[in-house]
């Protein structure tokens, strides 16, 4: 079977000064994830690996580089889902955790629950020996400056995705050589969000979904809009109805735009290795790795190709 991984670095009006680093970041993450698939690893391991790489990269709003909420704090959300069992794990509003995607995976594998939030999630992390880091180490100088600047101008989160105030959630979807699919999404959310605000990213069916019978999806964009249309599940639903992967993503994003005036993006892969990376915001950094080829893009309709050296 054909193994593929697709990653995104968030859908919004990425400013020119961040575009090169964003594209390099998604390409590196796709390569890391693909290396797992290329050595017979599972889709689940591949998406976790790719998202960890994006969380560790300060250009993205996840793990290191996360945006700050209204009180100037970091609150992180993440989900991971295994398409073979429909097992999923998520965390929301966690602090001091460098790789929330791995904590989400521990929720899936080591508890009877699907999501843990804030203090409980942090206590669970402690109980299984996941190291906490001082919040300060997750916050970049760039974010401190932007947070201050934006404080004066903030009008509403909806505008963020059509302006340069937005920020980049990260995600990955993959199918492995056994035909299993998986997805993962991780974010610091939206800058200046209310304390305790949880967006779409850690919510099953909204920020991500994976089912071996249809495919895997990871979403990004205006969280409140994505939640209202349960975007990940809507894309899966369209695939289930027989719509081709690319059309299913485009149709669902169009619906979100028409129905709730929300902009965003999504990546998707089917068990047979069909994939898509599509967005309705100005830009979205994405990359896809499959046998011999590394695809990537940033602007609408853009699709570049590099040779993939294993
Ligand atoms: N969807 C994320 C949220 O609303 C943000 C993003 O994708 O950039 O928290």
TrEMBL record:
Uppermost EC category: hydrolase
Domain of life: Eukaryota
Entry annotated with the keyword Membrane: no
Entry's Gene Ontology molecular function annotations: asparaginase activity; beta-aspartyl-peptidase activity
Reactions accelerated catalytically: Cleavage of a beta-linked Asp residue from the N-terminus of a polypeptide; L-asparagine + H2O = L-aspartate + NH4(+)
Gene Ontology biological-process entries: L-asparagine catabolic process via L-aspartate; proteolysis
Listed Pfam families: Asparaginase_2 (PF01112)
Alphabetized CDD domains for the sequence: ASRGL1_like
Signal peptide limits: none
Matching Gene3D superfamilies: (Glycosyl)asparaginase (3.60.20.30)
Matching InterPro entries: ASRGL1_meta (IPR033844), Ntn_hydrolases_N (IPR029055), Peptidase_T2 (IPR000246)
EC number: 3.4.19.5, 3.5.1.1
Keywords tagged on the record: Autocatalytic cleavage, Hydrolase, Protease
Keyword Protease: yes
Site (Cleavage): 168-169
GO cellular component terms listed in the entry, alphabetical order: cytoplasm
Active-site residues (renumbered): 169 (nucleophile)
Binding positions (substrate): 197-200, 220-223
UniProt family annotation: Belongs to the Ntn-hydrolase family.
Protein name: Isoaspartyl peptidase/L-asparaginase
Native source organism of the sequence: Merluccius polli
